[in-house]
Structures are given as structure tokens and as C-alpha cells.
Amino acid sequence: MNLKPETFSKIDQLIPRYPEKRSAVLPLLHLIQEERGWISNEAIEWVADKLELQPINVYEVVTFYPMFKQKPGGRYAIKVCRTLSCALGGAYKTCKSFQEALGCEVDGTSEDALASIEFVECHANCGKAPVVMIDEQMYEGVDENAARKLVEAMRAGEIKPARED
Ligand code: FES
After folding, report:
1. How confident is the model at residue 71 (pLDDT cuts 50, 70, 90)?
2. How many domains is the chain partitioned into structurally?
3. pTM across the whole model
4. What is the distance in A from the centroid of ligand 1 to the CA of 159?
5. I need a labelling partner for 132 at 20 to 30 A (CA). Which of 29, 92, 99, 159 fits?
């Protein structure tokens, strides 16, 4: 399993904090996804081995929680809020604009692997609708035009991606 040394060290510090190794499965998966962007079969087997579990036990956790991604996404993760304020403020049009600019659907990744798009629920900034997160950065009042400009900025490398691949 290829991870940064600091991630290995976080993992080694985390496991003894739990009375049973198996209880560390969720935080371990979060750390791996934070670094790699998704949870591969290799990661599932590695976590199982580390926590003395069967791979199926880890696989069940990964498939149960929707926040775990089972395939690689784009370099940037675009999360468009579709809860009430944002929906009323035009989030669906914003999302359509991202889809057109990237040539992919919601829950999909652009062919050039630049970005993935998903709908999410409230980003807790409802007064600034429509709100979009790109990786960990929040963007407010993102209308169709702003969405197109954000895609251009991603293409130009003007937005720093959360992961260095
Ligand atoms: S409804 Fe979109 S941020 Fe709350």
C-alpha cells in the first residue's frame, strides 16, 4: 500500500487508541481516502490485514457509507449543494453548467479526469446560495456563468487541487 510516511504514522498512532483494533476501521478508511481520493480493493485488503479483519468486513463498511468512493474521481471534486435555498437559488442550473463545461453527468468524472461532479446536501452557508465546494474550498453565489469560469480556472491550474497525484 502506497501512502505518505505521515499517513502511515497517523495510522500507527490511531490504532492503539481503540480498545479493539477493529474499531479503527472508519478513521483508517477516512485517512486513506483523504490521501488517495478513493478506496481501492488493495486498500480494503491492507486495512483488513492491519486490523486483523477479513477483507469482506472492511468491504461491507466501504459499501455501507456513501461517503466512501469505490472508484477514482477527477483531480477536483465539485460538490453542488441542492438543498432548499440553493435549489431555489439555481443550483440545478449551476450543476448543468458544470456538466456542460466538463462533458459529464452528476456522479461522473470528465473524460480528461479533470473533475467529478456530485450533488450534496447543505454546506451550511444557505444565505449565499447557490453554494459549491471544490475540494475543501467553498464558493458562494455560483451561478451558471461562475460555474463555467470555475471550470476554466481548474483547467488553467488556477485552483490548487486538494490531492497531488
Ligand atoms: S441550502 Fe445550500 S448551503 Fe444550505
Report:
1. confident
2. 2
3. 0.75
4. 22
5. 29
- Residues lining ligand 1, CB < 6 A? 81, 83-86, 122-126, 129, 131
CA distances from 108 to 25, 98, 148 (A): 27, 11, 17
Mean pLDDT value of segment 59-76: 91
**What percentage of residues in the chain have a pLDDT greater than 90?**
85
Residue 44 and residue 114: Cα distance in Å, rounded?
25
Q: Which atom of ligand 1 is nearest to the CA of 123?
A: 3
DSSP 65: -
Between the CA of 89 and the centroid of ligand 1 the distance, in Å, is: 9
> Which range marks the domain in which residue 142 is found?
76-155
The identity of residue 74, as a single letter, is: G
CA of 86 to the centre of ligand 1 (A): 5
Atom index in ligand 1 nearest the CA of residue 130 equals 2
Q: What is the C-alpha to C-alpha distance for residues 60 and 55, in angstroms, rounded to an integer?
A: 9
Average pLDDT over residues 45-73: 94
Query: Are 17 and 47 in the same domain?
Result: yes
The count of other CB atoms within 10 Å of the CB of residue 131 is 26
Q: End of a domain among 64, 93, 113?
A: 64
Residue 165's pLDDT band (cuts 50, 70, 90): low
What is the atom index within ligand 1 of the atom nearest the CA of 91? 2
Chosen domain end from 26, 44, 64: 64
